[in-house]
């Protein structure tokens, strides 16, 4: 109890009076953690290859590909909005980044080239985020519509720029993407570091506090002197920025910019957030929930292969997981509120 | 303490399009004074407090704090000048803890480099929030409870406590006893008295006339955007006050 917990911002499930063990078991985060552990051992018991270092390592890589989008979505949803455009932003950033890297390939070293690509992807992400921010805070569109526009336009523009196919072929990047330390690739470690920093910011800093406050009651936030418009704009810019970085992540993994790789990533990112128990009406949730949601989603989609379920079933299973998680939350919600 | 009134309005007028919401409103408010602001719906009470708190700028007229003319660009400016406003029903963020709400917009940071990076000292905020609320006579359950865990009365108490705690000059309370039971209303009135003791000026807006008569030193009656009466409370009765509000008497 003495550890400074994210409780100050909001609790997914404020511990009830009574035994601490009871509180721990009913805590949603504990349930998610237990589900994750159960799934891990279930897939392992079905197929012992699942426990190999290489498999765990690729599990972490897959987790890394999704986690930044899920965190971006957590910020947006906690603030009371939604960002449908994260998947498109990954595609458009990856494709434009790849075009620029293509142009300079051979003119500079590999490291410099990848850093340039990262910068371009980040800038494209910032730009898409800024467009969302403009549509929402200046034009005053609801976030759903504003980000639907950038979802559609972004995905379309990625196809236009790329001509429909993958852009570039950077084999050294693919080779580097599988190097690392123990079960972590360097690429995963970089992503996890960014994930940890952004998670800490949401729960322990003033920036995160304002995000929760605005999602909880934007009038109260405004009355408390918070510049709500500016803060909301910054959240969409942050979301775009993180999505842009994910575009570079995919470039390094597959050696090219793909207009289609992460086309459904916005749905998966929102799924992580929903599974993690973040309230879609804003103000409530924790990034730990999102991380666990992301871990569960990753382990299920990866694990299906090990129990001989064709990958074509992936999206159906993801739908089922969302249904279970959201259904349980709805039931708990009605019970505690009535 | 200077003799200049804490807050003074001079000939404030405000219209929304063709609707004249306030016409030449002038009054003075002194430290340690509780002023009732009453009037029927549409009399201009809300517009008046929004002008004082910086939500709306007046079309005409002057606003003085401690004898100095001031212009608010945003509610933030009036807060800086020591004016706290409790808006009807919407002052708190329900998902945040009591401490987080009390310190919303004025968060305490950790000491050292972490604080410079924006890290919050949540424990200090929770502790000080309870201390300060206790000082103004509000007791809330300890522990990191979110505001949504509190009863309606407790929520209102926390909201008022926050206003009293931060106000240096003026507190504006818009319908603070709305939806509250008799005992909870008395607690709110006690907090208003405690604020007066601290030398604050309280503007108390309410439709519950017995509460207004009970706690206020002076009552200002607004009708159709103008002040129609501004007298010490002792010169009113419930009947005469009601008559003045509706315009049926005098």
Describe the structure.
The complex is a heterodimer of chains A (338) and B (250). Chain A is mostly helical. In chain A, 72% of the residues lie in helices and 1% in strands. Chain A has a single domain (51-337), classed as ABC transporter involved in vitamin B12 uptake, BtuC. Chain A is built from 14 helices and 2 strands; from the N terminus they run H-H-H-H-H-H-H-E-E-H-H-H-H-H-H-H. Chain A has a two-stranded antiparallel sheet with strand order 1-2. In chain A, helix 5 (110-138) packs antiparallel against helix 6 (143-162). Mean pLDDT of chain A is 86; it is low at 1-18. With 250 residues, chain B is α/β, with parallel strands linked by helices. Chain B has a single domain, classed as 3-Layer(aba) Sandwich (Rossmann fold). Chain B contains 9 helices and 10 strands. In chain B, helix 6 (152-166) packs parallel to helix 7 (182-197).
